[in-house]
Write a structure and sequence with these properties.
Conserved Hypothetical Protein Ylqf, Chain: A, domain 2, 40% helix, 12% strand, single chain, alpha/beta, Rossmann fold, 8-stranded mixed sheet, binds guanosine-5',3'-tetraphosphate
Length: 293
């Protein structure tokens, strides 16, 4: 994606050191980490620090919002992670789809050694304990609420765990979840990552004005998913349009005209971004693994 001028964003950097400490101390209490990422931006929605922070702790990647992502791209990403020794499963925490794979993947794959050890030592009754980690807005709370179920059962304080920490039982399983996700703010070394996260709404629109953001998104869609635009907006695309021309086409089709016959590009931008975020343009993934060499 082309280079663009964006205001540098600072995401509560002062909290980071404390966050790291809290996560590190909570890690001692769990058997595995469930890292939640956005299936539309699988790399960009991972905080690179998670690797070092959770080093040595078994981990499962939950590719959330898979209902909004391109299924082919999701399969490519799952293979990509598998080839790097990471188990990833697609989930949709809004409907709960895919979450039935969580416990089997944990016990048969991610935590297999631990399970075998517990079985040998007649400790199979011991609950599997998990902690949820991820950047803001990827669906951590939705995941915890889904897993805890409607009859949310809180587990009493454990020795060594401070009173404020709550464990919730994962419905229909012998597993418990720390009812407090670890939130890792993203570092934006790369502007294109910030841009993709801004498309999804995960970071505030104020890094770019709404119109520039919508134009960048339209250019991406016209190149990678032209059908999403022709089907939704009934516009024709040659592939040569500028972002502004695309935006004007959408606005005109939607009758967003202001005095003088000009297109109200601000309204058109809001429409494009809202409809993309709501999945109305179809299932779209914003990045694929980089090809090596
Ligand atoms: P966080 O704790 O990681 O910050 O994320 P949270 O669960 O609050 O989810 C952020 C937004 O993403 C919420 O939408 C939530 O409904 C939505 N979401 C979570 N998981 C999924 C999913 O698998 N698919 C889809 N399509 N959306 C998902 P919101 O607009 O902030 O709130 P609302 O729509 O729930 O009112």
């Amino acid at each position: 994606m082309e280079n663009i001028d964006m205001k540098p964003i600072q995401w509560f950097p002062g909290h980071m050191a404390k966050t790291r400490r809290v996560i590190a101390s909570n890690l001692k209490l769990v058997d595995a980490v469930a890292e939640v990422i956005d299936a539309r931006v699988p790399m960009g929605s991972r905080n690179p620090e998670i690797d070092s922070l959770t080093a040595g702790k078994p981990r499962i990647l939950l590719m959330n919002k898979c209902d909004l992502a391109d299924q082919n791209a999701t399969s490519i990403w799952i293979n990509y992670f598998r080839n790097r020794g990471i188990s990833a499963i697609p989930v949709d925490c809004k409907s709960g789809k895919g979450l039935n794979k969580l416990m089997p993947t944990l016990t048969n794959d991610v935590l297999r050694e631990l399970m075998e050890k517990r079985s040998k030592n007649h400790m199979t009754g011991m609950p599997v304990r998990l902690m949820v980690l991820g950047i803001p807005n990827v669906g951590k709370s939705s995941l915890i609420n889904r897993l805890a179920g409607s009859k949310r059962a809180e587990v009493g304080d454990r020795p060594g765990v401070t009173r404020t920490k709550q464990w919730v039982k994962i419905e229909n399983s012998n597993a418990e979840l720390l009812d407090m996700p670890g939130v890792l703010w993203h570092k934006f070394d790369d502007q294109s990552v910030a841009l993709k996260l801004a498309f999804t709404g995960a970071i505030k629109d104020d890094i770019l004005d709404t119109e520039t953001l919508a134009m960048k998104l339209l250019l991406f869609l016209a190149e990678k998913y032209p059908d999403s635009l022709t089907t939704r907006y009934k516009i024709e695309i040659s592939g040569q349009e500028t972002g502004l021309e695309l935006l004007e086409k959408v606005g005109r089709k939607r009758g967003m005209i202001i005095s003088g016959g000009e297109v109200n590009t601000e309204r058109a931008s809001i429409t494009v971004l809202d409809e993309f975020r709501g999945g109305k343009l179809g299932r779209i993934t914003l990045e694929l693994p980089e090809k090596r060499g």
